[in-house]
Design a protein that fits this description.
single chain; PH-domain like; 2 domains; 5-stranded antiparallel sheet; 3 helices; 9 strands
């Protein structure tokens, strides 16, 4: 059994939120680009957009710039929407992970199987356990009360979780 009690500060939440915001923004921006270029190509092929072709160099950068501005505003304001500190206690067993969190948003308890983790990312102060591409649980590397970060990483690898980075 490996046990960790992490005191997750606002900086870790901001980093996680900004990473997930960037990961969510890229598909939206690429989708917008593809739709706009498809409409333009179809319109040019059928001769529909030729009278309005002069609008494209004006409207396209303005709309694109506005979307980038909205995403940057959300990115920069992300620290104002997040709470200050949360305590996350995780206990790693051979058959799963028990978690318990206490913070301003409330309390929660539950159990994960190792199959529910997409991958683990090792950072300077935390090991992030991702359930999908954008949502993760931060595990503080210095917060182990039983075992160590190396023991946890070895257990994750043994259970088939992809681990990115080194301790």
């Amino acid at each position: 059994m490996i046990e960790n009690t992490s005191h997750i500060d606002k900086a870790a939440f901001i980093a996680l939120h900004r990473i997930s915001l960037i990961k969510r923004s890229i598909p939206i921006m690429v989708g917008f680009e593809l739709v706009f270029l498809t409409v333009l190509a179809v319109g040019l092929a059928y001769g529909i957009t030729r009278p309005f072709l002069w609008i494209v160099p004006i409207v396209y950068p303005v709309v694109d710039g506005f979307m980038i501005w909205v995403r940057l505003q959300s990115y920069m304001r992300s620290d104002k929407r997040l709470s200050s500190t949360t305590t996350l206690k995780m206990t790693f067993h051979d058959d799963g992970v028990d978690h318990e969190s206490h913070g301003p948003a409330g309390e929660s308890k539950g159990r994960f199987t190792y199959a529910s983790f997409h991958h683990a990312l090792i950072a300077k102060k935390y090991v992030f356990l991702y359930q999908n591409v954008s949502s993760a649980y931060p595990v503080e590397r210095a917060g182990f009360t039983q075992g160590s970060a190396a023991d946890m990483v070895a257990l994750l690898k043994r259970m088939g979780v992809k681990v990115v980075g080194r301790l």
